[in-house]
Design goal:
The structure is a single chain. This protein has 240 residues and is of the alpha/beta class. It has a domain at 1-106. Helix content is 22%, strand content 22%. It has 5 helices and 12 strands. It has helices at residues 24-29, 74-86, 126-138, 182-195, 222-228, and strands at residues 2-3, 6-7, 35-36, 58-62, 90-96, 117-123, 143-148, 166-170, 180-181, 198-203, 207-210, 213-216. A 7-stranded parallel sheet has the order 1-4-5-6-7-8-10. The protein has a 3-stranded mixed sheet with strand order 9-11-12. A two-stranded antiparallel sheet has the order 2-3. The chain starts with a strand and ends in a 12-residue tail after the last helix. The relative contact order is 0.12. Bound molecules: iron/sulfur cluster. Iron/sulfur cluster binds at residues 9-12, 15-16, 19, 21, 66-67, 97. Iron/sulfur cluster (SF4) binds next to loops.
Length: 240
């Protein structure tokens, strides 16, 4: 389940080049215009009986069509944090390419982090990993994971894995998607094994190189194709 408190975004790094936001979603909601949605207060909206419309005990992913840490959302983020704090019965999952803006608009009672917040730092190549991950590890966050998506090259995450719970890897989707190489995926998995960190190969991307060929894979089959390779490492807990 997703919660989109605001919409709109703009490119910040190589991983954004073929962002799906610049496709049909942008046509529908506008591009580069950052605005609150009518679902802004959705997690805390109540019915006439005073009960939350949204049931608890679930994982709620947020900001798939935007970035939680956009500067344009600095004022709204305070309210978003307050809603997250109120719904302790929901696990919020926040993925970002702008982790360097994490400390801005942080609530005064954040302390070492809220228990119900998972922050995922997205990295697509070694340069983005080397810049973003040391910052990510330096911030007070209770539950962290790394999302290598879209995976654009081989990456060494070894220096950063001691501080995270989980790594997710995924290829790029779309007509102009860049190739995802299975050797890069297996290499990151090997790093996770050594560091005792869980690992999920989320999707192959549209162009998946393995065994000397590049396989073209339909968007609806990429998750299943990744799963059938059987390389995930789980501790039995569900993150997504
Ligand atoms: S940060 Fe995310 S939503 Fe924004 S342009 Fe980049 S990939 Fe798209």
């Amino acid at each position: 389940m997703n919660w989109e408190p605001w919409t709109g975004c703009y490119k910040i790094s190589d991983g954004c080049t073929n962002c799906y936001f610049y496709g049909p979603h942008a046509k529908r909601y506008g591009q580069n215009t950052i605005q609150k949605t009518d679902k802004f207060d959705w997690p805390v909206r109540k019915n006439t009986k005073g009960e939350y419309n949204m049931k608890g005990n679930k994982i709620l992913a947020t900001c798939f069509a935007t970035d939680f840490f956009l500067p344009e959302a600095d004022a709204w983020r305070k309210e978003a944090w307050a809603m997250i704090r109120e719904r302790t019965d929901i696990d919020f999952l926040i993925l970002t390419k702008r982790i360097d803006r994490f400390p801005i608009s942080l609530p005064s009672d954040w302390g070492t982090g809220y228990d119900n917040v998972n922050i995922g730092c997205t990295v697509e190549n070694q340069a983005s990993a080397d810049y973003r991950l040391p910052l990510f590890l330096s911030y007070p966050i209770k539950r962290r994971f790394i999302a290598c998506a879209p995976l654009l090259e081989a990456m060494d995450l070894t220096p950063f894995l001691h501080g995270v719970n989980h790594v997710t890897v995924g290829g790029e989707t779309g007509r102009d998607a860049r190739v995802c190489d299975y050797d890069w995926v297996l290499d990151i998995r090997g790093q996770c094994v050594k560091a005792d960190v869980t690992f999920w190969f989320k999707n192959t991307g549209s162009f998946f190189r393995h065994d000397g060929i590049v396989e073209k894979i339909n968007p609806y089959k990429q998750t299943g194709r990744a799963k059938e390779l059987g390389i995930d490492i789980s501790d039995g807990k569900r993150l997504f």
